[in-house]
């Protein structure tokens, strides 16, 4: 059964599933869909054209599905999709996409956005990601699964954050952030190698971690230029899923990677 507070304002064009709770003074706009079991605290505003999955918890006053902060935006119909079992804490802001950026911002499942997190237009956010307080993504950023965005950290537009990456607090990333690694600092940010403690907590074996450490030594601690280092790694390393992902991440980077 739905629980909707009498002060909530809900568009007739919104679709509210069963067992959804909507708290006092929430505003739900046109074209919003809210999945079963999702709970909205007081003063949550979901502007429009936003699809939210099941069993999410959104604290107020968060602002979801607002227009992109992009001067090219002229009122086009663009969208936001949020998956299942996410926690979105107070004062978080998540914006819809832009037409030139594909028209949609996406957030996956089981993410934890702490207070004042910001996800800008056209971002593609994976699963099981932690945003500490005031973690900020500019437009078009891609974030891989199981990564951590530290408090007050900011990611430049069009950058990519690899899966299992860890950004320390107050980091400013203007290039792509390597997977599995610790990246800390502002202008310049620096790579501090494999995030051993974090990977152990996620169940990585010692053997798996050691292989990643060896890969990083070849790529970033040798005196080879990057192209030669990649070739050496491809020749010497066993090409398992982690190694292939890491190398492909670097080779496909358009902004360059932090750490080289």
Give a short summary of the structure.
Helices cover 17% and strands 27% of the residues. It has 260 residues and is α/β, with parallel strands linked by helices.
Describe the structure.
It is built from four helices and 28 strands. It has 260 residues and is of the alpha/beta class. It folds into two domains: 3-140, Hexapeptide repeat proteins (UDP N-Acetylglucosamine Acyltransferase, domain 1), CATH 2.160.10.10; 199-251, Udp N-acetylglucosamine O-acyltransferase, Domain 2 (Up-down Bundle), CATH 1.20.1180. An eleven-stranded mixed sheet has the order 1-4-7-10-13-16-19-22-25-27-28. It has a nine-stranded parallel sheet with strand order 2-5-8-11-14-17-20-23-26, with no helix packed on it. Strands 3-6-9-12-15-18-21-24 form an eight-stranded parallel sheet, with no helix packed on it. Helix 2 (206-220) runs antiparallel to helix 3. The radius of gyration is 20 Å and the shape is elongated.
Number of helices: 4
- Give helix % range: 10-25%
State Rg.
20 Å
Strand order of the largest sheet: 1-4-7-10-13-16-19-22-25-27-28
Given the helix and strand composition, which structural class is it?
alpha/beta
Q: Please tell me the overall pLDDT.
A: 97
CATH class category name of the largest domain = Mainly Beta
Separation of the first and last Cα atoms: 55 Å
Strand content: 25-35%
pLDDT under 50 segments (min length 5)? none
Largest sheet: 11 strands, mixed
In CATH terms, what is the fold-level topology of the largest domain? UDP N-Acetylglucosamine Acyltransferase, domain 1
Shape: elongated
- The H-level CATH homologous superfamily of the largest domain, spelled out, is Hexapeptide repeat proteins
Q: How many domains, as an integer? A: 2
Number of strands: 28
- CATH architecture descriptor text of the largest domain: 3 Solenoid
């Amino acid at each position: 059964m739905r629980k909707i507070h009498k002060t909530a304002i809900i568009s007739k064009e919104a679709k509210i599933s069963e067992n959804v709770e909507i708290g006092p003074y929430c505003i739900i706009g046109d074209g919003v869909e809210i999945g079963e079991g999702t709970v909205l605290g007081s003063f949550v505003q979901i502007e429009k054209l936003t699809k939210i999955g099941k069993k999410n918890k959104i604290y107020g006053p968060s602002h979801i599905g607002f227009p992109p902060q992009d001067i090219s935006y002229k009122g086009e119909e663009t969208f936001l999709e949020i998956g299942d079992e996410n926690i979105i804490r107070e004062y978080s802001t998540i914006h819809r996409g832009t037409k030139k950026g594909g028209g949609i911002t996406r957030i996956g499942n089981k993410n934890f956005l702490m207070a004042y997190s910001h996800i800008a237009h056209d971002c593609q956010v994976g699963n099981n990601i932690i945003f500490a307080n005031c973690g900020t993504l500019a437009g078009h950023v891609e974030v891989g699964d199981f990564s951590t965005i530290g408090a007050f950290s900011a990611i430049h537009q069009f950058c990519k954050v690899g899966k299992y990456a860890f950004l320390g607090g107050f980091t400013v990333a203007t290039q792509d952030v390597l997977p599995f690694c610790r990246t800390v600092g502002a202008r310049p940010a620096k790579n501090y190698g494999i995030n051993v403690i974090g990977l152990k907590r996620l169940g990585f074996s010692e053997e798996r971690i050691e292989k990643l450490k060896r890969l990083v030594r070849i790529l970033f601690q040798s005196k080879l230029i990057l192209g030669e280092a990649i070739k050496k790694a491809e020749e010497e390393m066993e090409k398992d899923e982690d190694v292939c992902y890491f190398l492909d991440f670097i080779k496909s980077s358009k902004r360059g990677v932090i750490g080289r």
